[in-house]
Amino acid sequence: MMPTTPPSGRRLRTKLQLALLLAAAMGLVATLLTVLVGARSATVASFDFRQLAVGGLVAGAVFIAALIVWHMASVARKEARKAKTESQHLRRNLAAADAIIRAEPQVLIFWEQGQAVRIVSHTLTGIPGLPDQHAEILRFGQWLEAPSADTLKAALDKLFTNGRSFNIILKTIAGGTLEAEGRAAGGRAVLRFKDVSTYKAQIARIDEQHDALARDIRSSRALLETLPMPVWLRDTAGRLVWVNSAYVKAVEADSELEVLERQIELLETRQRRQIAKTVASGDSYKSRVHLIAGGQRKPHDIVILPVDGMTAGAAVDVTDIETAQGELDRQVAAYDRTLDRVETAVAIFDRDQKLVFHNTAFANLWSLDPDWLATRPTDSDILDRLREIGALPPVVSHRDWKVQVLATSRTGTPLEDVWHLTDGRIVKVIAEQRADGGVTYLFSDETDRIALESRYNAFIDVQRETLDALKEGVAVFGTDGRLKLFNRAFCDIWQIPPRKLNELPHIGEIIAAVQSLFPDAGTWLRIGRAVTAFQDERETFSGQMDRTDHFVIDYALMPLPDGATLLTFADVTDAKRAERALVERNEALIAADRLKTNFIGHISYELRTPLNTIIGFSDMLASPIFGALNAKQREYLADIMSSSKTLLAIIDDILDLTTIEAGGLELKLAPAGVRAIIDAAILGIRERAVRSRLTIDIAVADDVTEIMVDEARMRQVLYNLLSNAVGFSKVNGTVRLACWRENGMINFRVEDDGIGIPKDQIGRVFQRFESRSRGSEHRGAGLGLSIAKSLVELHGGTIEITSEEGRGTRVMVRIPEEPIAQTTDGAAGGSGGSTERLAGGTRAA
Of 302, 500, 639, 707, whose Cβ has the fewest other Cβ atoms within 10 Å? Predict the structure, then answer.
């Protein structure tokens, strides 16, 4: 088809030609009118040829114009007919084009500059989510998925701005799929929505799957990238194609690119060969190996998975797991050792009812062979074996009984039972299902416990009978302050009916009931607080109650280990009366003893003066100045002098003892020679020793030379001890005196092999006026050992006596090397004033 001039162009040209012709005609008419007007005003005479010529020209022009107009009208009619024909042709073409457009299922949207958007066609149906209304179609964000709406908006912006065409696939919110195609033509834009054909739908699905896979790959790699464990991928040739940051760090590389370019391996060659061999068979590889990662050798779990000819691998650091596993193994071993030491028999079975653990007590309790138990028998096998050896309780139906026992492993029902075995033992059985489906059995031999419980119950009964038989009132209060136990004596002492105490009242109620008998609120408050006090505030105390009914009650409160409190009451009215009588009698005896002592002291002073006179005159008579005496006179005079000196010594001892009891004896401590003290003491008993033909054996250590004592008093101590030893020694016997230093003390030991002292009298030898001859010729006032003990204690020392009747006596005296203060009261055992006496002075205590 040849191109034709558009009808609008032809109509414009025809109109222009007609306008020119009309203008020319109008000009001719105007000229003619001018001539005519001019001719009317002139006279006929003036009408000349020129005017005729002009008129002819005008007529010719009019004729020509008429011809032109006719021609133009003819041409216009032709053009009109042609335009009509073309218009009809265009209408047919437009109808055909519209039919073609509407024949194809589509939505056609048209934009023209300066005009509103138009929806030219909407014949697309069957697309889920595509609106039917034109106004709704233009709201793309309401029926398209957000990503599709954003993509379409961006494409339209580029179409309107740059005229860039596009062809994209869109998805509706309802799940439909559309093809959107945009084109530009001059100042116009066309958007076409079409149904995606089968192959395009497949392409769309493929694109969608591709996008999803790409997202999965990106997210998976991002996830693998964040893992702290090395992860890698290998291609079909076994080359590294991707590694994560942990891999790069493990091989100490700078970047992933460096690892891939240099193919830096984390695994050793031997390990890679083993992996390749396993993967080649289509199996995955998993093993625990030691790798050098980050410069440190650590255990790792290697996992390799074959994927379509490629392999994916990961190395999991299991250092903490191995450490924890080792700790767990140690704990399990310790747990097993602990269970192996307990007396309760323990047997653990797995979910298949096979024995996985038993302790020694289990094998011993049932007398089972450890080697047979090591074969991991089932719980049913063990019950059958116990039945064979007669170690099970007698039952009517063993099968039904066994089903009941084994129900724990099958139903999870806990079992707690007591088996009375044929050999008389009583075994408590507890079965509990474990979290892993296994079962733990506990077997406890309750024979001894039950027997002990029976004995305990019997003991409690006996104890209750014993408590009821006691004269003392006993009450036990619990931690809540309520009465838990009482006896009949408690009821009798406090005059409370037993039925009231059977209600187990609170301590406050009991106090309120008995307070009238003893109205001392302070004592009851202390007792009440002690019963209800906290554990760390409890105390033990006792006291005495003088009741209003003239009864005297001793009470004692003592906390018990279980938190309870024991309260006892004893009626000591009779004992108190007897005690008072004894106290009064004792006070009288003390007064009499003091009177006796004072009397003896006074008499001793009174006897000393005449005795000294007798001794003086005896010495004068013995002197040759007054003449010679015959033998009989000398014998009498010697007896007088000996008896006088003995009596003087007794009087001196009595005076010393009186002084000590009065607290008036003052020691004059000074360094003294040990040998000199011993020699002076021996000198006093030498004559008696010679008469008894005794041997005196003296042994003094070389390092003992001096001692800080009152020399006269220490000589008196040794004299009294030696005098006693000589007096009770047998004829031709031996008296031994030894002295040595030991542990800061100077020790003196006096021994004899005389008649000894009976055991029942040893405790009384240091008492005053204790004098027993015990078959010897020794006589005395019984003050020697008492004074010796007092003087030794005044020096801060000790004196001990050991004796065996018939074999002799040993006296040990220990004097401290350094002098210490002692009281004369304590030494003498008196009750007078307390005075401490030191060398060179006196200090009041």
Answer: 639
Q: How far apart are the first and last CA of the chain?
A: 155
Distance CA 574, CA 471 (A): 13
> 364 with 357: CB under 8 angstroms?
no
| 133/488: higher pLDDT | 488
pTM over 0.70: no
Does the pLDDT value for residue 144 go beyond 50?
yes
What are the residues facing 121 on neighbouring strands?
108
Q: How far apart are CA 794 and CA 732, in angstroms?
A: 35
| HSE value, Cβ hemisphere, 13 Å, CA-based, for 550 | 2
* Residues contacting residue 359 through CB under 8 Å, at least 6 positions apart: 336, 339, 340, 341, 342, 345, 346
Percentage of the chain lying above the pLDDT 70 cut = 82
H or E, element range at 700: strand 695-700
The pLDDT tens digits for 395-448 are: 888 888 888 888 876 777 888 888 888 888 889 999 888 888 889 999 988 888
The answer to whether residues 326 and 315 touch, using CB atoms and an 8 Å cutoff, is no
Confidence grade of residue 838 (pLDDT, cut at 50, 70, 90): very low
**Cα-only R_g, the chain:** 70
* Among 767, 781, 790, residue whose Cα is nearest residue 657: 790
Q: Look up residue 730 and give its DSSP letter.
A: P
Token readout for 255 is 């970047």
Sheet holding 439-445, edge to edge: 355-358, 345-349, 439-445, 426-433, 415-420
Mean pLDDT of the region 345-371? 88
DSSP lists the bridge partners of residue 473 as: 569
What is the spatial distance between Cα 312 and Cα 260, in angstroms, rounded to a whole number?
A: 15
Q: Kindly give the pairing relationship between strand 695-700 and strand 734-742.
A: parallel
Say whether pLDDT at 513 is over 60: yes
For 737, the enclosing helix (H) or strand (E) is strand 734-742
User: For residue 40, is pLDDT > 70?
Assistant: no
**What letter would DSSP give residue 484?**
E
58/418 Cα distance (integer angstroms):
154
